[in-house]
Design a protein that fits this description.
Blueprint (H helix, E strand, L loop, with lengths): L1 H4 L13 H13 L7 H83 L5 E9 L6 E9 L4 E10 L6 E10 L9 E4 L4 E10 L2 E12 L2 E12 L2 E9 L21
Antiparallel strand pairs: 1-2, 2-5, 3-4, 3-6, 6-7, 7-8, 8-9
Helix pairs in contact: 2-3
Length: 267
Amino acid sequence: MCFLVWFPKCLHWPFCPGVFIAILAFVAAAVTFREEPGKKEKAVWLLVFFGLMFAEVWMMSKDRDLNDAARDKSEKELAAQFDKIGVGITTTIQNSDKQFAATMESAAGIRRQVSKSLSISMGGDSYCYFDASIFGAPGKQEIGIFPVHVGTLGVPDLNYRITRTDRTTMLTKKGYQPLCVEVKENRPIVSFPITGDNLYFEVSYSTANGIWEEELRMRKVKDEWERAIRAGRLREGSIEVKQLFHSPRYPIFTEGPYQGGIDWVPR
């Protein structure tokens, strides 16, 4: 066995293709030195030649089978590795998609929370409008105008401009109130002298949650002051009316262009 270790690798079993060809070539060269061999000897050499040729074809087939088996095994292992890599890539993409979706959902939740917090800080759906009342001693009475809060949240940054329009010379008063909230007693923030039986006011004001316009009408009916109010928020060039009412005895027009029978400024 130790002696065989020193043999070339192709001389170890199974032989490499070509070994039997080499033996066949050697035998053929040796036969050429035979002078006039007999028929039996020729038959023996032919059998030897055919045997070596068959052995070579058999060894080549065996080597081909081994190579095909090794190649099939390698292709299967390579395909399995590619499948594993493909599954890994697919899993990575799916996990990435899940993480992205979770991130987007978290961001959307944060945006909703921020939007909600911002809406709350700006007053949400709450709003203010202006109303009026008569105060003062007889002969020295004035009309006082005050903000009225509607909703559950305070409305910050109330900037207002109130203009009396029933006179030839308009009278405007401006002001600011940090927060409009519900109060137990409405106190006037501006006042105007009473002259005549019709008092018309236009109020333009802004808050943190919008820009507003209002018409405030006061009419004296049988020694009692009746009022009508129309207030709304400006939205894309139109007014979203939030307050629209009048006192029961406020004069109603049955004809003409006036909305609801009230002498509002046409819009």
